[in-house]
């Protein structure tokens, strides 16, 4: 079993030994570190601190939720308790509540054995590396000081935020509810038995969409691997065709990743979720776009077609957001189906993605499969090489950079080599001797061939 501590939070499997898994002790320890960091950051203004807390529908959610909420109360911090919620809903709630931070209890796309504490700042955005390191240091030192009985925090329950979040989305300037209602769409929703099974159908129904629900009971018993990849989505692909639906919607347990199923039962492609939404946004509000370095080149192509500029950040949502702010990007996100639309907030949000996609489709008056066919065609190959601990991974990446020095090279996050018609991104794991190899090309055979060539070159350099 596993416990992973990082700058973005703590993630692990439930049960087992303290320090090796996400046990109750570890949950309390890390919540204490976050609350202590908030108090240290506010200094003299540390009185009346507020933190928004929400969770997905995981089986372990109520247990971890109670531990985290009461730990914050013990630190003298008030808690706005959203109960069952989504990651983007908590992100939206933090600034609306004028809160000092937020905690989302979810392990995102990980299986049911996992849970996690994801940490937000007072803008409802993920913490940066410096902030995360401070929290890890506080946790390691167990430098906590709890409040006396007269200064404990209070819990304010507020279960209205899913509806508030929906209202926020419907009020976005590029969301046209009347156009969507007129289109009379029929959509199948796979909510993987988590909070997406509640909030996505509710959003669709308000927009006049006929909803067919699949796995929308928020009981935490995931009916399939919750990562929205093709091999996990056989049931919804079949149901879209069977129901003669216009398309299907799949979200992960905390509703920050969004995938579509075309009307023919084929995957629209997680990479193309962002491409389609960006196409619509850029057609209405010309500007710039950002994704991470491992995302499809199709976003660059669409952005350039709308006379905008495109840049790629290091992998990680916080890095995408930082570059979006720097470049005044009007749309951005990650190729895993994460839509970041600054007019709403700087966080991946499937509700925003669904509403913008529906409006785009209503305006285009074409099928989802035809829309997908209208975009540049690229295929990806994702591989990894496991190396022995004795092999210097950094030296291998330096050698590959030198080998391809005459190509377009980016080294802000591993090594990305852009060729004329294809690219490869090499990244090392922070926790094990692994190099991840992502490639993309106009044909799957070309992406696979490039990956195999690079793997052989790396093995030759490593002498294996």
UniProtKB/TrEMBL annotation:
The Alpha-D-phosphohexomutase alpha/beta/alpha domain, residue ranges: 8-144, 174-265, 272-378
Superkingdom: Bacteria
Entry-linked InterPro entries: A-D-PHexomutase_a/b/a-I, A-D-PHexomutase_a/b/a-I/II/III, A-D-PHexomutase_a/b/a-II, A-D-PHexomutase_a/b/a-III, A-D-PHexomutase_C, A-D-PHexomutase_C_sf, A-D-PHexomutase_CS, Alpha-D-phosphohexomutase_SF
Reported cofactor(s): Mg(2+)
Family: Belongs to the phosphohexose mutase family.
Stored PANTHER family: PHOSPHOGLUCOMUTASE (ALPHA-D-GLUCOSE-1,6-BISPHOSPHATE-DEPENDENT), PHOSPHOHEXOSE MUTASE
Cited NCBIfam families: Arch_GlmM
Name the UniProt record assigns to this protein: Phosphoglucosamine mutase
């Amino acid at each position: 079993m596993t416990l992973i501590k990082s700058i973005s939070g703590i993630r692990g499997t439930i049960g087992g030994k303290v320090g090796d898994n996400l046990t109750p002790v570890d949950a309390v320890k890390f919540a204490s570190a976050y609350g202590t960091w908030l108090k240290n950051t506010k200094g003299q203004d540390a009185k009346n601190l507020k933190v928004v807390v929400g969770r997905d529908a995981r089986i372990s959610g109520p247990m971890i939720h109670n531990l985290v909420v009461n730990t914050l109360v013990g630190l003298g911090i008030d808690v706005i308790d959203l109960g069952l919620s989504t990651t983007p809903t908590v992100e939206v709630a933090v600034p609306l509540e004028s809160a000092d931070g937020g905690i989302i209890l979810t392990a995102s796309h990980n299986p049911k054995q996992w849970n996690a504490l994801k940490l937000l700042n007072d803008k409802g955005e993920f913490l940066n590396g410096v902030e995360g390191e401070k929290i890890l240091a506080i946790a390691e030192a167990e430098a906590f000081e709890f409040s006396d009985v007269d200064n404990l925090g209070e819990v304010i329950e507020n279960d209205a935020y899913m509806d508030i979040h929906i209202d926020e989305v419907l009020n976005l300037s590029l969301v046209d509810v009347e156009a969507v209602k007129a289109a009379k769409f029929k959509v199948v929703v796979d909510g993987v038995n988590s909070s997406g099974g509640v909030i996505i159908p509710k959003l669709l129904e308000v927009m006049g969409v006929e909803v067919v629900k699949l796995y929308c009971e928020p009981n935490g018993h995931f009916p399939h691997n919750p990562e929205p990849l093709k091999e996990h989505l056989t049931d919804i692909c079949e149901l879209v065709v069977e129901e003669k639906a216009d398309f299907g919607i799949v979200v992960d347990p905390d509703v920050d990743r969004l995938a579509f199923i075309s009307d023919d039962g084929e995957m629209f492609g997680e990479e193309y979720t962002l491409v389609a939404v960006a196409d619509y946004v850029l057609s209405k509000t010309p500007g710039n776009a950002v994704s991470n370095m491992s995302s499809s080149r199709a976003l660059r192509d669409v952005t350039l077609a709308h006379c905008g500029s495109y840049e790629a950040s290091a992998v990680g949502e916080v890095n995408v957001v930082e570059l979006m702010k720097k470049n005044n990007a009007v749309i951005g996100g990650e190729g895993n189906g994460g839509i970041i639309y600054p007019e709403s907030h700087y966080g991946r949000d499937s509700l925003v993605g669904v509403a913008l996609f529906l409006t785009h489709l209503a305006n285009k008056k074409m099928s989802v499969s035809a829309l997908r066919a209208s975009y540049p065609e690229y295929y990806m190959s994702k591989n990894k090489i496991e190396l022995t601990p004795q092999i210097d991974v950094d030296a291998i990446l330096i050698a590959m950079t030198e080998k391809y020095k005459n190509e377009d090279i980016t080294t802000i996050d591993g090594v990305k080599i852009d060729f004329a018609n294809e690219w490869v991104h090499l990244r090392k794991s922070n926790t094990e001797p692994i190099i991840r190899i992502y490639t993309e090309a106009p044909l799957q055979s070309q992406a696979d061939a490039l990956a195999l060539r690079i793997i052989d070159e790396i093995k030759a350099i490593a002498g294996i």
